């Protein structure tokens, strides 16, 4: 205290000090600010890690997609023969590829389109609804009995319907598939030093790392346990006739027309003479196991092989064939566990021009 000599009164000091409550409040506010700052810095670090991981994953996904597109580019032109066979056998799906085995032209019925036998030749073709041999689609453009007489289609009596004087190339025929529909399989054929076929298909299996109790419906393609991939198969063409065997001679062997398709040497096929069967062991996955192909559609164009349909006037039949691809990629559960937060899907749409 300080004494006032003027009026002899006592006044308090003019200085002020922090009380205990004010000190506690100040420390608390400072602590809250520091903690919030550290949490923000931590969140930024986590977000940065997540963004970096997703960018790396997107880069890897695009890299895998580029390899897939390159396989298509080197696969050749649209294989109208197999699409025609697939149309005959059916397009019912299971595990999101086609359920019924076509035989790839190695077995089935050899059907010749002839007029005058109850089948009207024209742009509709002569599809019978059964497995058909390779070359069947080409024959939908040829009338093997154009004069429609009573010689049972064998004009020269040699026991063969083909190569007679009554054969007529109509230059018009049916579409091998229905355009505008996302197909689950892509069929390509390449005629070079040797003729090869390259096939792609979407397939599903159960992800073993999925959460407990999760399932996959292979009919509908739905379920969090579904793990999709794209598979490839390559076949090599041979001229072995109806027996499809190197060991024994048969009709049409070495007639200059490919009629047998065996698996490429890089693929293991369980059938006799290395022929493909309905077993799935021969197909090879394209994408690594950490990628989940969640959606796939192939849109090949045109629907008809213009090399056979030389008489067509439809402007939609283009000379240069191409295929549109719509692909949705995600992550398998093993990879998703390493990323905090939801794992986004990536949908890619692209068009690939196919070489003749």
Task: Please render the helix and strand layout as text.
Elements: E1 2-3, E2 10-11, H1 20-73, E3 77-78, H2 80-89, E4 93-94, E5 97-98, H3 136-139, E6 142-143, E7 168-169, E8 185-191, E9 195-206, E10 226-238, E11 260-263, E12 284-285, E13 291-301, E14 322-331, H4 333-336, E15 346-353
Antiparallel strand pairs: 1-2, 3-8, 4-5, 6-7, 8-9, 9-10, 10-11, 10-12, 13-14, 14-15
Short structural summary:
The chain is an alpha+beta fold. It is built from four helices and 15 strands. It has one domain.
Question: What does this molecule look like?
Answer:
The chain has one domain. It contains 4 helices and 15 strands. It has helices spanning 20-73, 80-89, 136-139, 333-336; strands at 2-3, 10-11, 77-78, 93-94, 97-98, 142-143, 168-169, 185-191, 195-206, 226-238, 260-263, 284-285, 291-301, 322-331, 346-353. The strands form 5 sheets. Strands 3, 8, 9, 10, 11 and 12 form a 6-stranded antiparallel β-sheet that branches. It has a 3-stranded antiparallel β-sheet with strand order 13-14-15. Strands 1-2 form a two-stranded antiparallel ribbon. The longest helix has 54 residues, at 20-73. The mean pLDDT is 82.
